[in-house]
Write a structure and sequence with these properties.
The complex is a heterodimer of chains A (371) and B (126). By secondary structure, chain A is α+β, with helices and mostly antiparallel strands. Helices cover 20% and strands 32% of the residues of chain A. Classes of the chains: A alpha+beta (371), B alpha+beta (126).
């Protein structure tokens, strides 16, 4: 027998055939064949999410369960910098897996459930995250990366009305809170959350019912939205995309995500990379993620260099696109700390030419969360 | 569009006298998706066959525009700069990109007619 060959076959979500029937254009994303847009196009899909209700298939993301017993919280706090002792049942928190240098292995959502925690992970990182968590926690705790669950997000101002029509009680959930619900005798878990800057829900449900459930939401007025619009929506909302705006080399403080590290943890530490993060908090911060608004229509994509007005290089763009709801070019990136004040004039280099821009407040688009 | 020729880079070109009008094809816009930004060459610029003559950006990415023939830019369509969505709605008529004074008409010979171009795009898609 020779060596074991690992074949990375492209995966499909349980909604693949449904996407195809709706005329989706697919792109390979983190090993999955995912819909980037449907027939109406990214701009229409984006606007529809802001005005009505968009339905996103995010089943490529990891859904990890960790059983809570004995000293789990102490162990988990060593790798996730939030206050897990004071998180309430059914409460969700945005956080990270940090590395020893204070960088970010992944950003994630932790929800405390009855017998443990569920963690939603980025598709491209989920296998590595699973490994990191297993290694950190040892064999004491049951850890499952679900393969039989799908995840869909219903986002936009009509989401609550549409979902309440099928599932009693969901509209009373508060932002970043969830609960168990029954749907045709299937247990599903719904949180009021999302990544578009709109009110909405993320629904975790068995693969075998996801297509019929999605079709019901569509029959009630939701429309399927691809990853293209998901990207423009999250950028308008000032939210980070892992692997672009944050990665293993950026600390949460540099990424302007200090709020996501619980106060007690910021003061006490006790998690990977704390010494770097603590020094960042105490003024040792050389750069910061900021919003960027180009003066004209020019789009500064990821990697575009940023210069001061004196033409010194001061940073780089990490995300940039056209924002359909703000009707203009928007970007995010890292600049040296002296250039982070709102309104600071900067220059963006695109195709060899420098274009004027200003450091802008995030989000570009005002959020509509139900608190 | 009789007399219109097409390039493998999905530009169309219509020659009237010495003046060639150039734009991108319907097929190109379908591949690009929603167009949100256009950069056109300046009048008086000399461009070489298959050389860079502008940029279009969709919500997804930037793509270069190549000129299918050599010549000197004499006019640009600024209405598509102001409203790039026109390129999606009417790429092969109103949303032309630029006009140039053609240097060598024989360069037209290597381009495709409509029938050949349609076949070319179908073959590429399959």
């Amino acid at each position: 027998m020779g060596f074991i060959k690992v074949i990375m076959e492209i995966q499909k979500t349980a909604l693949y055939n449904y996407h195809k029937s709706l005329g989706a254009k697919f792109v390979p994303f983190a090993g999955y064949q995912m819909p980037v847009q449907y027939t109406s196009g990214i701009i229409e899909e984006h606007k529809l999410t802001r005005s009505n209700a968009g339905l996103f298939d995010v089943s490529h993301m990891g859904q990890l369960f960790i059983e809570n017993k004995t000293d789990l919280i102490e162990e988990l706090e060593k790798i996730i910098p939030i206050d897990l002792k004071n998180i309430k049942i059914n409460q969700s928190k945005y956080s990270f897996l940090t590395n020893k240098n204070g960088g970010i292995y992944d950003d994630l959502i932790v929800t405390k459930v009855e017998n443990g925690f569920t963690v939603i992970l980025n598709a491209a990182c989920k296998e590595n995250d699973h490994k990191i968590i297993k290694e950190a926690l040892g064999k004491k705790f049951k850890i499952i990366l679900y393969k039989d669950l799908s995840l869909i997000a219903l986002q936009g101002p009509k989401s609550a009305e549409i979902l309440e029509g099928e599932i009693d009680g969901v509209s009373s959930l508060k932002f970043m809170n969830g609960n168990n619900f029954l749907y045709n005798e299937n247990k599903i878990y719904i949180t009021r959350s999302g990544y578009t800057g709109e009110d909405g829900f993320e629904i975790s449900l068995p693969n075998k019912i996801v297509e019929s459930f999605a079709k019901i939401l569509v029959s009630k007025g939701a429309q399927l939205i691809g990853l293209g619009a998901r990207d423009t929506l999250r950028l308008e909302a000032g939210l980070c995309l892992y692997g672009h705006d944050i990665d293993e080399t950026t600390t949460p403080i540099e990424a302007n995500l200090k709020w996501a590290i619980s106060k007690r943890r910021r003061e006490e530490g006790g998690f990977l990379g704390y010494s770097k993060i603590k020094s960042n908090i105490n003024g040792g911060l050389s750069r910061l993620r900021v919003g960027i608004k180009p003066s004209g229509k020019i789009i500064a994509r990821e990697g575009s260099k940023i210069f001061s007005q004196g033409e010194n290089e001061i940073g780089f763009v990490t995300s940039g696109t056209y924002g359909p709801s703000v009707n203009g070019s928007i970007a995010m990136g890292y600049v040296k700390y002296d250039f982070t004040k709102y309104g600071t004039k900067i220059l963006l280099e695109v195709r060899g030419k420098k274009h004027e821009a200003i450091v802008a407040e995030l989000p570009f688009y005002k959020k509509n969360y139900v608190r | 569009m009789s007399g219109v020729k097409f390039s493998k880079e999905h530009e169309w070109i219509k020659l009237e006298g010495d003046i060639a009008t150039i734009g991108i094809t319907q097929h190109a816009t379908e591949m690009l998706g929603d167009i949100v930004f256009v950069e056109l060459p300046e009048n008086g610029t000399t461009v070489e066959k298959n050389g860079n003559a502008g940029v279009v950006e969709s919500t997804k990415a930037a793509s270069d525009i190549y000129t299918p023939v050599s010549g000197e830019i004499v006019e640009c369509n600024h209405s598509i700069v102001d409203d790039p969505s026109k390129i999606n709605s009417d790429p092969e008529n109103q949303a032309w990109f630029f006009k140039l004074k053609i240097k060598d008409k024989s360069e037209m010979n290597s381009l495709m007619d409509k029938e050949t171009y349609d076949k070319f795009t179908k073959e590429k898609a399959s």
